[in-house]
Each structure stands twice: as C-alpha cells, then as structure tokens.
C-alpha cells in the first residue's frame, strides 16, 4: 500500500489532545485523511481541532474517557455516523506512573492499567467488528512502548500495562488474520518522544529523582510529528512492528530474549534504568 492510498480515509485517534496523538492527527491531515479526535481533555482536543480546521481539515472531536466502554462505543457511533468507515484506529491514549511498586496508590495503579490496557481493549471491542464488516483494508495500531518488552523498575504499573498491550496486540493480529484478514494490526513502539507524558501523570503529583530523570530524558526525545511520519510509513507498508528508535528497541529486546532463554536473574544484564 502507498501512503497516498490513505488519502480520504478516516483516522480515529485517542489521546489526540497532546503529544504523539496530536502528532498523528497533524500527519493524518497532512496525508489528506479525515480525523476523529478523542481525548479526556475536551479543552486540549478543541485547541488541536481548531488549528487543523483552520487548514481546511474535516475534523470531528469526541471527548472520550477510554476507560469507559460506553464512551468508546459513542466514539465509534460518532465516527461511523460522520464518515461511514474507519481506515485507521489509533489506540494511543496513555498515562505514566513512577515510583516503587509498594508506594503506588491503589487508584493510581487501576487508572494506569485502565487507560493504557483496558482503554485499548475498549477500542477493539467498539471498532473492530464494524471495521471487519467492511471488506476494504483498514488498520488497528496500538501504541505500546519499549516498556512493552523491557523491564523498568519504579515504573511497574506502566510496564505491566504495556506488556499487556503488547500481548493483546499480538493475539489480535492472529485473531484478525483468522476472522478479518482485511484489518492490518500493528504495534507502535516509541522510544523517547518529546511530549507531556511525565507532566500529566496518573493520579498523584509525581516528583523525585526518577521522575526528573525521565522528564529530562523525554525532553530530548524525537518530535511527535517526526514520530508520526514513521508511524504512517509503517502503516502504509503494513509493518507489524513500527519503531521510532529501532536500535535501542533491538538492544532491549535482545537483553530480554537473553534473560528468558538463559533463565537469568533480572539483575544479570540490568544496567541502571532498563
Ligand atoms: N512520549 C514517549 O516517549 C512515549 C514512549 C513510549 C510510549 N509512549 C506512549 O505514547 C502514547 C501517547 O503518549 P504521549 O507521550 O503522547 O503523552 P501525552 O501525555 O502528551 O498525551 C497523552 C494524551 O492521552 C490523553 N488521555 C489520558 N487519559 C485518557 C483517557 N482516560 N481517555 C482519553 N484520553 C486520555 C491525555 O489527556 C493526553 O492528551 C501513550 O500510550 C504512551 O504510553 C510515549
């Protein structure tokens, strides 16, 4: 498939009010797609939409909490009512949480798992049967993270949720191959992308040296629009693995494979952060 074939298609993007989701929205419009933007922050959503509409894009905004199944059903209803079909479902909304596992408040643990993992499940249950009823090719891309393959202490709710999305996405790929072969399923696994993810964290204010380390680290990351260009190239090429930083992904994945196949202890290859 060529990138130009996405023109006039419709992209539904969760977490579209900021960061990678906003970058995806801008790049989708740049490619000539209609966009349905979903975010829990109606204010951020409208700011992004106003900007895109000023450039002539056809934009629908649907304030959505991806943790609420009925919200995501309403998002699908709105998208299909407005555009008749969905070419790309970008399950992208996500949250961070930093600190020792035993210090994570129970509601923060639940929120991270609910947004990062259950939110993706809600997207699949609301959209995939309708996308599957359309014989034309379409795409489901779940935003995972290098945290979906690497082990990162003091980020356990996030890592557990992202390992879950990785597993869910691989299973979904196999299920769609069996039931809806016209739906291409991909993992988008970014390395560092400069977004507000460590500002807009889960439930309690996050502070301390680990949070500061990650905030600094992210600031030096790739721009969301550059990440979005990689994303859409991967979609057009029907890649399963869409990676912003393939070298660091390979390094972390190789370590993980070594730990598993060598039955090594978690600290055997650990060099500081992951
Ligand atoms: N930035 C990175 O370096 C990086 C690296 C790996 C993976 N990711 C993943 O990329 C995705 C996007 O994150 P980002 O870095 O752009 O962060 P971001 O904080 O800039 O954007 C996330 C957006 O998700 C929205 N959101 C939060 N909870 C929501 C909910 N319940 N329902 C709907 N929307 C909700 C937020 O309002 C925000 O606009 C996440 O899944 C994140 O885990 C980011």
From TrEMBL:
Gene3D superfamilies linked: NAD(P)-binding Rossmann-like Domain
SUPFAM superfamilies, sorted: NAD(P)-binding Rossmann-fold domains (SSF51735)
Origin: domain of life: Bacteria
Record has Oxidoreductase as a keyword: yes
Pfam families for this protein: adh_short
UniProt record similarity statement: Belongs to the short-chain dehydrogenases/reductases (SDR) family.
Protein name: SDR family NAD(P)-dependent oxidoreductase
Species whose genome carries this gene: Rhodococcus globerulus
């Amino acid at each position: 498939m060529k990138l130009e074939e996405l023109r006039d298609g419709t992209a539904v993007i969760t977490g579209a009010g900021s960061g990678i989701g906003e970058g995806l929205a801008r790049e989708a419009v740049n490619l000539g797609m209609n966009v349905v933007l979903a975010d829990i922050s109606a204010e951020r959503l409208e700011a992004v939409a106003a900007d895109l509409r000023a450039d002539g894009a056809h934009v629908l905004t649907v304030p959505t909490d991806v943790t609420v199944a009925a919200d995501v059903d309403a998002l699908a209803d709105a998208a299909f009512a407005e555009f008749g079909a969905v070419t790309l479902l970008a399950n992208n909304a996500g949250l961070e949480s930093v600190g020792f596992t035993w210090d994570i408040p129970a509601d923060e643990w639940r929120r991270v798992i609910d947004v990062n993992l259950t939110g993706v499940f809600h997207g699949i249950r609301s959209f995939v049967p309708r996308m599957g009823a359309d014989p034309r090719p379409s795409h489901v891309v779940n935003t995972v993270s290098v945290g979906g393959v690497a082990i990162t202490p003091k980020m356990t709710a996030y890592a557990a949720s992202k390992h879950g999305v990785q597993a869910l996405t691989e299973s979904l790929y196999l299920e769609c191959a069996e039931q809806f072969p016209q739906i291409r399923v991909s993992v988008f696994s970014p390395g560092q992308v400069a977004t507000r993810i460590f500002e807009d964290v889960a439930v309690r204010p996050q502070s301390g040296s680990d949070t500061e380390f990650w905030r600094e680290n992210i600031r030096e990351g790739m721009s969301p629009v550059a990440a979005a260009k990689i994303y859409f190239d991967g979609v057009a090429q029907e890649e399963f693995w869409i990676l912003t930083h393939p070298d660091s992904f390979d390094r972390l994945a190789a370590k993980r494979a070594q730990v598993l196949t060598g039955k090594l202890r978690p600290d055997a290859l650990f060099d500081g952060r992951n």
